[in-house]
User: Fold Acetate--CoA ligase from Pseudobacter ginsenosidimutans.
Amino acid sequence: MSFPYQLKTTADYKAAYEKSVQDPEGFWSEIASHFTWRKKWDTVLNWDFKKPTIEWFKGGKLNITENCIDRHLEKLGNKPAIIWEPNDPGEHHRVITYRDLHHKVVQFANVLRNNGVKKGDRVCIYMGMVPELAIAVLAAARIGAIHSVIFGGFSAQSIADRLQDAKAEFIVTCDGAYRGNKEIPLKSVIDDALVQCPFVKRVIVLTRTRTPISMIKGRDLWWEDEIRLVETQGSPDCPAEEMDAEDMLFILYTSGSTGKPKGVVHTVGGYMVYTNYSFVNVFQYQPGDVHFCTADIGWITGHSYIVYGPLSAGATSLMFEGVPTWPDAGRFWEIVDKYKVNILYTAPTAIRSLMGFGLEPLKNRDLSSLRVLGTVGEPINEEAWAWYDENIGKKKCPIVDTWWQTETGGILISNIAGVTPAKPTFATLPLPGVQPILVDENGKEVEGNGVSGNLCIKFPWPGMLRTTYGDHERARQNYFATYENLYFTGDGCLRDEDGNYRITGRVDDVLNVSGHRIGTAEVENAINMHTGVVESAVVGYPHDIKGQGIYAYVIFQGHQGDDELTRKDIMSTVSRIIGPIAKPDKIQFVSGLPKTRSGKIMRRILRKIAEGETSNLGDTSTLLDPGVVDEIKNGKL
Ligand code: WTA
Assistant:
């Protein structure tokens, strides 16, 4: 494949950016014309951020899997589409060519059809990082079903909430998953979730760990049996469903500052164009490159830069089942060496955790294949940036610091590898088509350079969310109501003298723990469900490895005894309600919380105490009971 829209010089970038602002429709329709459409779109863009309405390429007909698979078959049929590295380095890896991928996706698409899945049905996918996860995602897309992948670390309760919200009647899962030295009993977690979800009709279970599981007649089926059935039916093809560009492709749940996680909705056409464009440009993908994105497909990064971006570009995408520190902290480097990885895309948390192991794990590892390094998910600190640059990139690989969100579908602000300059800890410049703006609390634009404010985007780009599933008003409230006519990101940001953007972190009550988004309200709700807990308040605090840790202040009136045990009990409850990723790092028992006279918790004060900055707590005179602050300050963990 060739990419006429790949930017090769700073001048290319400037010209593309200029054009994208002057003539966004012309700019994006030219790029979209390089994809396979069954019918061309009627209009390039309709939009109104007030409602919000966002439509790209409306009336255009296509199927994203024809763009990710079928169109590559003629020239790239024998090329690896997915290389899979198992958790256990002793187990054999797998290479799936584009032709194999086509075969497997078609087979599983037929399995879904055989089981009654139709266009528009929601299919929930809860699997470990095995190739069948990507296959299930693509098979759903092939028949026009809407996939909703749930990360393997979420609890039964979280799954039940999502199944109910999406009204998903079909589930694809595994018996279990391997992650490092742990085995996660996925099917058993699903079984617990299904107690609350009697509407689920089918659960298709892939064998991975072959741990004993319950299989209910009439509802639960083995993946392998279903594939065999399709083989005997002898239908080697599964014609792809014709989709409108604005039909839903997937729902992905993510945390906000209030309430339960919301189902962010992406549609077929715009998402495809945007993930491909950003992949090809930011990473400067070259045909033949092996691209290793270390994320899990349960998060947006995996959707966009393991599955759709790379595959739509005909790239080889490396999928890794395990964790960076098992069996030892050299695992990433072993993989880079083994498969001659060219592009490595990971998170600051992973870099910080690996830094802690020193340089020993890098010994005898040939990393010379690396050409581009990337980071995503949270702000990267200078030290981690420098370590990555020196020891992994050997000062020869540009590092792209890519800022984006589940809602944005793809990277919005980033340098372009080797084309536009990097600046440590800065995401730098917006991609063509992206029009950032900083505003103050009142929504007034902060103009000029050397300023900071809340980050908003003032014009639509093809990859942006369209709605939140089943609740359009919630999308309006969350993203488009804070500032009129702007998409509000929830992030604070500064713009330096040269116009480079640096994301400083969330300005709402969303935490970013190891690059995972967690709402403080969600964690509080989970803690409050624990017997004996009267009230709680959760804030983030700086954490050396995770970026942010979770600090919980808890008023507890349960049976007194061993505080340490009670802390563990509360953590178990949070694990049950949300999942292990939301477990507080610190729990402090308090007798009261600092509240204003109107009953609002003053989180600013709690945040300062959690950060250890107790000397300057600011004005506490508006508190109902200022005495409570001293108690919290002097309290012990
Ligand atoms: C944060 C992940 C600083 C940010 C793709 C955003 C970042 C949230 C960066 C979205 C970055 C992501 N620098 N912060 N390069 N990338 N973030 O939805 O706070 O899981 O709002 O999407 O992560 O997290 P999400």
In short: The chain has a mean pLDDT of 96. The first strand starts at residue 43 and ends at 48. Residues 254, 299-301, 376-379, 401-406, 427, 489-491, 503, 505-506, 512, 517 surround WTA (CB under 6 Å).
